[in-house]
Amino acid sequence: MTRKKFINVFTDFIKKAVMLNSKRLEHGVKSLEDEVEDFDDEYFKMGLRMIIDEVDLKLVDEILSNILSHEKGKYKRIYMTIVKRTVIGIQEGISSRILIMVSLSLANLPKSEQNTIECELLKD
Q: Is the pTM of this model over 0.85?
């Protein structure tokens, strides 16, 4: 995955994750059941399925970390780390603003790009 593709995939993912997180906060974890299959990312789907099934958070973290440890590509690893942390954040019920902040901190983008993405995400 190139840096440019990473930024596009990351931005699209965070938009969807924020929508899911808002739904979870309003209606609970089980409300995400119908949304899982709308995602192409099998890693994210696995994480969502585990939180919907109320798998212990430590086990979710361990499983996703184990899968992540096998990834070799730099930007793919960063993306998967963000996905893992997002799944955990959704499970924990953190606010969408904090979810965005955590994801941006993991993305390791220049401040100008972070600001642009954050503004785009928060305007919705």
A: yes
